[in-house]
Amino acid sequence: MNGRRDPDDPRSKMVGAYLRFVELVQPRLVLLENVRGFTSMPHADGGTYDQVVKESLRRLGYDVWSEVLVASDYGVPQKRPRFILIAALKGTLPGVDPLVRLHTSRRRFLQERGLGTRAVSVGEAISDFVVGDRQPLLDEEWGERGYCAVNRAKDPDSAYQNLMRDGQNSQPSDRRLARHSERTIARFLRILATCPRGRSISPEDRARLGIGKRSTTPLDEQLPAPTVTTLPDDIIHYSDPRTLTVRELARIQSFPDWFSFSGPYTTGGERRKTACPRYTQIGNAVPPLLAEAIGCMLIGLLRDQSPVQSSHVPQDNGELFSIADEIVTS
């Protein structure tokens, strides 16, 4: 629900480019993911974005199913509601509801990864990352000396941590701690001591603490995190007066520890227009565990799907490349 929600923003045109790509390629299955606000944001052609997309896909010859899913239902230690749309060429999935199949396969998906059906908490996700003696790092990874880091404990504290560690036996990358000022640390301590956990601090608390920033959330160790964003100072660690490291935020998104990120940690000013820092890469991503659950379901649909003869074969790949370029640019 953040942002201006402006239908005339060039980035809002990406949906139209996506639909034109589907029209040209006519894939057997279509997957679209977006924020929950996709179901309420007005479209320039009337109706909301989800209504326009569903009607457009039906005109292109697709059966369509959609729902708002919550990432924490699929092992992600984060609530993160997301709009999911699945479409299949009309008549190729008779009697099948892909989203019902996704729900019914959830328990098996989690069990195969060593997880239970109870939501994973923030503590279960990142408690094995500990602030040590704060000795400055000398590793070239940081680009300059003088930063401290969290260290991953030798043994995992939860089934989720065990899953995230698979394939990464050494210390993972992206553990650098922010260098907070004494004033910032004092403010974080006041927030942790006096504000409810697990939700954005209230306007009353912001006024009491003299905080102008609208979205600051002290995490609750016992609950999944709220939706993580692209700004590192939106979230405060549940026990330390600090923001999260890139690796801790990646854990909350369900990125495994072997996955490393490139680019700057943060950006500001004019650089925000051209650079995609690591926090932004994580905050804008689909949580890998949720993506994997959806992908497994799609593979099953492809196996079960009735054969279909496409009446349309693109004659000019140039148009496809043009639309792909438009999607990337927007």
What can you tell me about this protein's structure?
Strands 1-3-2 form a 3-stranded antiparallel beta sheet, with helices on one face. Strands 4-5 form a two-stranded antiparallel sheet. It has a two-stranded parallel ribbon with strand order 6-7. Helices cover 34% and strands 11% of the residues. It folds into 2 domains: 152 residues, no CATH class; 162 residues, DNA Methylase, Chain A, domain 2, CATH 3.90.120. With 330 residues, the protein is an alpha+beta fold.
Q: pLDDT average, as an integer?
A: 88
The proportion of residues forming helix, as a percent range, comes to 25-40%
Low-confidence segments: none
Shape, please?
globular
Can you tell me the CATH class of the largest domain?
Answer: Alpha Beta
* Sheet with the most strands: spatial strand order: 1-3-2
**Helix tally?**
12
Strand content: 5-15%
Largest sheet report: 3 strands, antiparallel
Q: What count of domains describes the coordinates?
A: 2
CATH architecture of the largest domain: Alpha-Beta Complex
**For the CA atoms, what is the radius of gyration?**
22 Å
Structural class: alpha+beta
CATH topology of the largest domain: DNA Methylase, Chain A, domain 2
* SSE series: HEHEEHHHEEHHHEEHHHH
The number of strands is 7
Brief account:
The protein has helices at 14-25, 49-59, 98-104, 106-112, 122-126, 159-165, 182-194, 203-209, 246-253, 278-283, 288-304, 317-329, and strands at 29-35, 62-70, 81-89, 129-131, 150-152, 217-218, 235-236.
